[in-house]
Design brief:
single chain, about 80 residues, mainly alpha, 2 helices
C-alpha cells in the first residue's frame, strides 16, 4: 500500500508576550495622615466635651457633641478598611 505524502507544517514561533505594566497599588500619600487625623480629632472632641463639663467644643450641640466625636472616629476607622 502506498504511503501518503505528509503536509509540511509551518514551524511554530511563539509570539512575544506583551510586557505587563506594573499596577500601582496602595493609597495616595495623604490617605494615612487623614485617617489618623480623623481618629485623633474625634478622640480629642469627645475628651474635650467631658473635661469641660459639656461646655466645649460647641455648647449649642449639647450631647450631640458625642455624636460628632464618634462620627469623626468612625470615619477614620472606616478608612482603615481601604488602607493598603
Amino acid at each position: 500500500m502506498p504511503e501518503s505524502k505528509g503536509r509540511k507544517k509551518a514551524t511554530y514561533t511563539p509570539q512575544e508576550a506583551p510586557r505587563a505594566q506594573k499596577v500601582k497599588t496602595g493609597n495616595p500619600s495623604w490617605y494615612v495622615p487623614v485617617m489618623l487625623g480623623l481618629m485623633i480629632l474625634g478622640l480629642l472632641w469627645v475628651v474635650t466635651f467631658y473635661i469641660t463639663k459639656q461646655q466645649y467644643p460647641i455648647e449649642a450641640l449639647g450631647r450631640w457633641n458625642l455624636g460628632v466625636g464618634f462620627a469623626l472616629m468612625l470615619a477614620g476607622f472606616g478608612m482603615t478598611t481601604n488602607w493598603r
